[in-house]
Amino acid sequence: MQWRRLIPNGSHDDDLTLEGTATLIVSERALDVLRHHQLKHAEISPADRAAPLSAAMRTYLARRGLGPDVPAVTGQTPTAEGEGMAIAGEITTFFDALGHEPDDEQVTTALALVGPMEIGEPYRQDGATYRLDKCADDGTSFTWKDGRLLKVIVAMRTERAARPYPRPALLVDGIGPETTREQAADVLGAPDRARSAGDTWNVGSRFLTISFAGDRVQRIGAMISPR
Question: Are 214 and 202 a contacting pair, CB within 8 Å?
Fold first, then answer.
C-alpha cells in the first residue's frame, strides 16, 4: 500500500479545487464522500470563511514556510527529560507520539514534521503485528507494533533511497550530521549503552539512539525499546 499525493487543479465549479497552499475547496457532494471514508484530521468551514488551524497544521505550515500569513509556533523549545538528562528539539515531538495510535493527536503532530509516508505491508513477528512506514523525502521511518508507534528513525545523512532530514540542526539541540561520537557524549552525557554501531541514552521510560558512520552522526532514533 502506498500513499499518493493528489493535487486538484479544477475551478470553483468543480467538486474539488485547491485554493492557495493548503485550502481544499469541496462541494457538498465531495464532502459527503470524504466523511464517508472517515475524514478525521481536517478543519472544516464554509468556503467564504477561513478555517481555524489546529496546532499540528500551524506547526507544519510554519516549519515549512508555507504562507506568510501563518504565524509561527512560539514558546519554549520542547524538552524531554529522563533520569539525569534532558533533550530538546523536534525529536521531543516524536517521543510524545510513541505508544500512540495513528489517529491520536500526538501522532498527527509528529507526522506534520515530515512529508507523505509510504505505508508498508504488515508482518508478523514474535506473536505481534509490525508495520514499517517510510518518508524517503525526509529520511524518516515510523515502526508500528500492534497498531501503536514503536519507534521513529531519522536519517541525518543521505542514504541509498532516502534524503536526510530537512532540519538536522533542529532535531536534537547540539547534535548535527557532523557531530562526532565524543561530541555527542559531551552534549548528552555518557550513554547508558555503547555499542560499535551506536549509543543509547535513557530518556525516562523511552530511549534515544544515535548511530554513527565514519565517526559522524548517521541516524537518530526515538523508541520505546532500545532494540
Answer: no
Of 95, 88, 92, the residue nearest 187 (C-alpha): 88
**String of DSSP letters for 58-95:** HHHHHHHT--TTSPPP-SSPPEEE-SS-EEESTHHHHH
For 224, the 3-state DSSP assignment is: coil
- End-to-end Cα separation, the chain, in angstroms: 26
- Give the residue ranges of the chain where pLDDT is below 50: 1, 3, 67-78, 84
Does one domain contain both 166 and 84?
Answer: yes
For residue 154, being part of any structural domain is answered with: yes
Residue pLDDT, tens place only, 165-207 = 989 989 999 999 999 999 999 999 999 999 988 999 998 889 9
Do 104 and 155 belong together in one domain? Answer: yes
Q: Which domain holds residue 152?
A: 79-223
Instruction: Answer whether residue 5 is part of any domain.
Output: no
Whether residues 111 and 203 fall in one domain: yes
Please name the helix (run of DSSP H) or strand (run of DSSP E) that holds residue 56, with its range, or none. Answer: helix 55-64
Q: Any idea which residue has 533542529 for its cell?
A: 170
User: For 159-175, b where at least 16 C-beta lie within 10 A, e where not — what string?
Assistant: eeebbbbbebebbbbeb
- Number of domains composing the chain: 2
Long-range contacts of 176-183 (CB under 8 A, 24+ apart): 176/217, 177/216, 177/217, 178/216, 178/217, 179/216, 179/217, 180/212, 180/215, 180/216, 181/212, 181/215
* Phi and psi angles of residue 182, each rounded to the nearest 5 degrees, phi first: -65, -40
